[in-house]
Amino acid sequence: MATLPVDDLAITRAFGPHLSARTRGGSAVEPDRLVKTHCCFCGQQCGIQLKVKDNEVIGFEPWEDFPFNRGMLCPKGVKRYLQGSHPDRLVTALARDPSVASGFRPMAYEQAIERAAREIQRIQDKHGPSAVGVLGGASLTTEKTYLLGKFARVCLKTPYIDYNGRLCMVSAGAANKKAFGIDRTTNPWSDMVGTEVIWVAGSNVAECSPITTNYIWQARELGAKVIVQDPRITPIARTCDLYLPIRPGRDAALFAGVLQLMIENGWIDRDFIERETVGFDEVAAYCATWPVARTAEVTGVPERSIRKAAELWGTAKSSFLFHARGIEHHSNGVQNALGTINLVLASGRIGKPKSGYGTIVGQANGQGGREHGQKCDQLPGWRDISNPEHRKYIASVWKIKEADLPGPGVDAYEMFRKIDAGEIKGLIAICFNPKVSLPDNQFVTRALEKLEFFVAIDFFLNDTARHADLVLPGSLHEEDEGTVTQVEGRVIKVNKAVECPGEARQDWRIIQDLAKALGRPHGFTFDGPRAIFDELRVASKGGVADYSGITYEKIERQMGVFWPCPSDDHPGTPRLFEPGSDNPVAKGKGRFYFPDGKARFNVADYRPAVDDVSEEYPLFLTTGRVVSQFLSGTQTRRIGPLIKHYPEPRIELHPRLAEKLGIADGDWATAETRRGAITLRAMVVTTIRPDTIFIPYHWPGDKSANRLTVAAQDPISKIPQYKVCGCRLRPADGPPAYAQEREAQQ
Amino acid sequence: MSVPRHLEFFVDPSRCIGCRSCVEACTECDTHRGESMIHLEFVDRGASVQTVPVVCMHCEQPTCAEVCPADAIKRTGDGVVQSARKPRCIACGNCVVACPFGVPELYIDRAIMMKCDMCYDRTSVGKKPMCATVCPSQALFFGTREQIHALRPQSMPTNTFRFGDQVIRTRVNVMVPRRPAAPAQIDVTAAMDERPPSRAVRLPVVGDDADPFAQVEV
């Protein structure tokens, strides 16, 4: 039973988060060596040099030659080194033990592996292979995600594997696949500089992907007009040329209205549409139902601003449009993303220098992590697990029978529903913290408690791992090597700087140790990430995400290789869809990845959000990040200087709303939805719509924004609807219970 | 060793995103023991997300040094004003009060004034200051005047500041727009309403003795 072994606070006392604030290096300490690698956090994957002394990362030195960030770093990158040698670092395996004050007792690594294998075997013998599920992380290297996907399907023979990229980019990925046949941002970010107009849809660039700010503002210096669509005035919105203050959840309506104005005014590229696309007429017919007055009424964006957006976008000669979770985290997230793609395709500006479209990757390896097999419906190389040809090829690489390869599984949230229903009884989770990161997370907690056996692999005891029967000590980013694919589609190399401490192991070793202990080592005897990558190259060959021509040496030589890269002599593909470009699907018939080579317009249907505002819950709740924290905070809530920036989650609300409710800046306020309530301090700011409140989601327990969010999911991508739900707000009855005990610490 | 004259420091507040990367990077220098010598200020978070990074401007005639009774603040030949010298500083705080840019800070526990010295340990050996290297929006930039002209055609560097009768020239430049900039977005409601809301603005009205600042609707 995966209940908490002891009180949550007792576990916190033992395993943290404690704060590491000691500056270890500074300029006075001479490091033994500098290791060129990348940041361990978001999908920008900035180049950084780690200072290493005596098997310890003691600081950093900017890596100014790396072309994407040229030495630039956000505060998370600057202070990331403080998680090495952290007092909370797991250095032994842990076994759940309610008789111990901390709830866990150390266990020898080998014994822990044997016990994990025994329990998995027991559950599978009794209930079948599908009774065990696997959850992966999109921050893992591509090698690890490949190995994990293979482990689930070949070793465990379960279809149930998914990953936390489900919470990140899947709406964009599904829309990209439907429209272009390939799921990748189209251009390197450097193409932004020199473009005429940039449309930022639902992306708080400055806080979530800070390095991108420089690209946008450099473009602005050279004359680009910047359009920002967001319910909040974010730092990038502060100086934009056109700000669209959209109501949360209305994005598809806005895109339809803008496209309608483009059609009415002749601001579309008829030749391109005719020559290179299919499906425009259906989209045009749908957009005709979105005259500007209706669009304004639904979206909350004034007519004049919608007209201005259509004119700026429609009349430009070059343009760049990108979006992020703001439009994707919705129960109609795929439709929203398709709406942006329709604007891009109608403009005819794609597949050219200075004209691009992209989605901003949230997690470190959100891109590579989903291409090579830990997504429930995909096999390596972005192959379809339901496609007999694709299955046959991967089965041949893995040297198994195609019939032995399980079919598609279910998304990460659905796996918890299956746990709740008793269908999945054993769970292996690696670098995934669903107790904080999934919506309606009190349900997730209840589901976790039903597991017969739960083994977590991580380097800190995250909030979900506290429920585990066994915790296996995994590796920090700097303790392993491997590849990652960053926001531009550039495959880069993470390099090892230090050895794992104590009994901690690289995650790929742990996975292979489990396979061996299960008596199923076939296909899990790699001697390192390079060997895994070499098999991955073969497995991806001929697929859409073709990495077969990428080598570690080529990555280092070119400072990254853009996929697809189908052969040893191929330099990679920085820009997709250029005229004359070839791909394995169209085979010369066109530049888009469909058999006829043409891009697809898709009707991007507006649907109201599930659990929208109502009389009972009249406010929009939206959630997101702050710059100093990363995702569920497993790592960043342990780094003292980052906590100082934004110590506690706050509820942002507009002064008009604050006045109406009688809430002053700094007051305790209670936000309630149909799932639950949390009490936080209010932050009264004019930078948010008066009908909307915002709460950052990096905190657990009583401060968790995901106690409030709804588990509604997009029917295609299964991404949860984090970015909107009906909510109400009131002055709190008093300080919350946690304030006395925990506020100062966390 | 010195900081080459052709390399200059430029501050562009319009680019600041308030991420505090500069603040964190500054703490990585041992010369000031893990303290950041950069201030990062929200102008008024209630009304805007605008933030401003404040570094030492390295004045040609540093007021901080002029008012120092212990002669503890020195300016190097290459124009970098250094933190107070430990043996001399008496922690009187004159410099803190006198600096027109509000930069020096007194560290009572150590009885010394410390402030940004333009990463002298780095800039004097051909590297960039840590803050300007990492700044993700390049609100802080270290390079040549030619580089900044190419990168920021819509703004220009200025290093002459007037405080009352005092005119100060600095080694650090602030980027100012060449043309009047578009008004920054500060209140969402202004972008929501079809008709821009009237704004109450106080304007001085000459000859109105009763109320020199009449309330004017615009």
Folded structure, characterized:
The complex is a heterodimer of chains A (746) and B (218). Chain A has 746 residues and is α/β, with parallel strands linked by helices. In chain A, 31% of the residues lie in helices and 17% in strands. In chain A, the strands form seven sheets. A seven-stranded mixed β-sheet of chain A has the order 5-4-18-17-16-6-7, with helices on both faces. Chain A is globular and about 70 Å long. The relative contact order of chain A is 0.16. With 218 residues, chain B is of the alpha+beta class. Classes of the chains: A alpha/beta (746), B alpha+beta (218). At the A-B interface, strand 3, helix 2, helix 7, helix 8 and helix 13 of A face helix 1, helix 5 and helix 7 of B.
| Percent helix range of chain B | 10-25%
The general outline of chain A is: globular
Structural class of chain A: alpha/beta
Uncertain runs of chain B are: 199-218
Strand order of the largest sheet of chain A: 5-4-18-17-16-6-7
* Beta strands of chain B, count: 10
The tally of helices of chain B reads 7
| Sequence stretches where pLDDT stays below 50 over 5 or more residues of chain A | none
* Number of E-state strands of chain A: 28
Report the sheet-strand fraction of chain B. 15-25%
Give the largest interface. A-B, 65 and 51 residues
Main beta sheet of chain B: strand number and arrangement? 4 strands, mixed
Quaternary state, please?
A: heterodimer
Q: Total number of helical segments of chain A?
A: 26
Rg measurement of chain A, Å = 25 Å
**Secondary structure: helix percent of chain A:** 25-40%
Sketch the topology of chain B as an H/E string, one letter per element.
Answer: EHEEHHEEHHEHEEHEE
Q: Indicate the structural class of chain B.
A: alpha+beta
